Amino acid sequence: MALTEQIVISAITILEDGQLQVRRSRRVFDGSTMIGEQYHRHVLAPGDETTTEDARVRQVAMLLWTPEVVAEYQRQKQLRTR
User: Is the predicted pLDDT of residue 1 greater than 80, yes or no?
Assistant: First the structure.
């Protein structure tokens, strides 16, 4: 059988401060049997650019990142860097 590869967003986790953890899974199949899977995770902060993200990630960010959430995240970030 031929090996095929599938890349999917397998998890979107919302953190307490509004950040999104996005887990991308790379799955390898031999026919219809998955024979391997690798993960890559990245984090998006409120207000980050999302145009290159998966549509589901963009939708979650759009719903979650209200102007108030972004402003509070930026305020907290400034307090941490002092």
Answer: no
Spatial distance between the Cα atoms of 35 and 60, rounded to a whole number of angstroms = 30
CB 3 within 8 A of CB 29: yes
Report how far residue 74's alpha carbon sits from residue 82's, in angstroms, rounded to the nearest whole number.
Answer: 13
pTM comes to: 0.86
Give me 35's structure tokens: 């024979």
Among all chains, which residue has been given the structure tokens 């090996």? Answer: 3
Rounded Cα distance between 74 and 76, Å, is 5
**What SS3 class is residue 44?**
strand
Segment 36-65, tens digit of pLDDT: 999 999 999 999 999 999 999 999 999 999
